[in-house]
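Weekly puzzle thread! Below is a chain. First person to post its structure in C-alpha cell form gets bragging rights.
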Amino acid sequence: MIDQPSRGVTLTERQRLSWLRLIRSDNVGPATFRELINNCGSAERAIELLPELSKRGGSRRKIRITSISEVEIELEKIERFGAKLVGIGEPDYPPALRQIDGAPPLITVKGNLNLAQPPSVGIVGSRNASITGSKFAASLASEIAKAGYTIISGLARGIDAAAHRASLHASIHTGTIAALAGGIDQPYPPENLNLYHEICDGNGLAITEMPFGWKPIARDFPRRNRLIAGVSLGLVVVEAARRSGSLISARRASDFGRLVFAVPGSPLDPRAGGTNELIKEGAILTTNSNDILQALAPISQIEQANDTIIKETEDDIADFEPPDENARAIIINAMSTTPVEIDDIIRHTGYSAQTVYLVLLELDLAGRLQRHSGGLVSLILET
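Winning reply:
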C-alpha cells in the first residue's frame, strides 16, 4: 500500500527477491508495480495473480514471470560487483526521487551512499560541447557543490563529464551522482569508463534502474534522463541543440515540478538552440551559480512528509471483485490511441475509480496500455 515513511522501511530478503521478480517480469513498469501492490497487498501475491490479470486484459500469450533463480543470480552479481539493490522506502533511496510519479521501486547503486540524501542539482548538455560550455558547466558544478548540493548528470561526453569531474573533488561533504542508462556494470560511453570508476571509488555514486548486465540502447536513455530529473531539485541545461536529449531531461524535470535553468548562447551556435528555446518557454535564465542557488534556497529542504513509499500489507486484499465484461468493454471503448487522463475515463464511463484502475492494470499487463507523462494513458493498437 502507499504510505507515509518515517525513517525508512527496510525490505526483508524475501520481499527484496519478490520485488525484483515482479519488476523484472513482462509488462511491469514502476506505475504498474505500484498498482499491483496496492491491489494485491504484496509482491508475492501479485506474482501469483499476474497470469490471471494478463489474461483478463486480453493477452494472447502467457506472461513471462521472472523466476526466483533468475533474481537470486542477479542479486549475487550485484553484490559481487560491490553494488547494492535499494527499495523505494529504504533509507538509502534518494528522497527527491521518491516523490515523482512512477518512481522506480528498485534501483541499483554503487559508491558513496551518503550522496543520495543531500539535495541535488542536475547539470546536462551537449555531448559535442564547446570549450567555453565545458568550462562554464565545470564552474557551475564546482560552485554549486561547494554550496552543499550533490551534482547529478548522465556520464555522457561533453557537459555531463565536465560537471562530474568538477564536482567530484569540489567538497568533502558533497560529490557527484552518475545516472546510467544500462546496468550498474555497463557504464556508457566506454571512453568515460575511467571517470565511472573514479566516481564509484571516490566521492561519487552511480545509480540505475536497469538489470545487472543490461547494455544500454537508444530507448534506455530517456529513462536515465528521468532519473536525473527525479533526483534533482533543479536541472541546469548548458548547450543543447533543439533536438537534444537534454531537452527530454528538462521536460521531465518540469513535469516533476522541478526548477529548470538554461544557460543562454549565441543564436548562431546550433548548440544553443535548445537552451535559448527553453528560456523563451520559461526556464530560468542562468549566467552564474547565484542564479541557481538563490532560486533553490527556498526549496532545498525536501519535505519528508510529502514522500510516498510502497508498503506491503499482511491483509488479504487481493480477493477483489474483477470488473465484469460489460464494464471492461465500456472502459476500453472509451479509450483510443490518444492519451487521456484517468479521471476523464472515470467521469465518462461512470464507473468507480477502483474498477477503472483494475481494467487499466489488466490492459497494462496484457501489453495493451501505454502510459504517458502526467499520468495520461492510451490504448496500444493490436497488430
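Puzzle host: Confirmed. Bonus trivia for everyone else. The two ends are 35 Å apart (CA to CA).
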